[in-house]
Amino acid sequence: MKKLADMSAEELAGLVCETLRRAGITTTLSGGGCVAIWSEGKYVSRDLDFIEEGPVPRRKLKNALAELGFVEQHRYFVHPDTEFYIEFPTGPLTVGDERVHKVAVRNTVAGRLRLLSPTDCVKDRLAAYFHWNDRQALAQAVLVAEAQSVDMVDLRRWAKAEDATEKLLDFEKALGRGS
Length: 179
Prior knowledge:
This protein is an alpha+beta fold. It has two domains: 4-116, Beta Polymerase, domain 2, CATH 3.30.460; 119-174. 44% of the residues lie in helices and 18% in strands. The protein contains seven helices and nine strands, in the order αβαβαβββββββαααα. It has helices at residues 9-22, 31-38, 58-66, 118-132, 135-147, 152-161, 165-174; strands spanning 27-30, 47-52, 71-73, 76-78, 85-87, 94-95, 98-99, 104-108, 111-115. The strands form three sheets. A five-stranded mixed beta sheet has the order 1-2-5-4-3. Strands 6-7 form a two-stranded antiparallel ribbon. α2 packs across α4.
């Protein structure tokens, strides 16, 4: 296996996900780490956000990640051999107000990675745009949609439920799909 210092975001995320799975902890990668993977590297993030399924004692996370050499620093886990840091935002796994029930799985050389699907990754970024006018999040959603196939029908249904149909038009225009 590669050294931690030589791992890509996807490989490291796969290793972390696999290590936690072996410790009995199910996690899913979300946030900027997903954008980096689904945009095929057009976006760079050093933050790997994992959402845990169910309540997981912090000590259990700390012990599992210690096997890889990660140490807790405030709310993050860091390692001296990598610029990537790991965070566990509060669950459950949602995009806006909608619970995510199905995730994507990618097999990496370092382990099996659970992550938001491209469509849910776009929803995750658009939620930040819809609710906080985060234009960087809008740009990230566009990068993912340009690199991956996303379900526009599902996006429109979701945006309506988020009361953000008008703001979705900004996304569609950025993709060249809007009026």
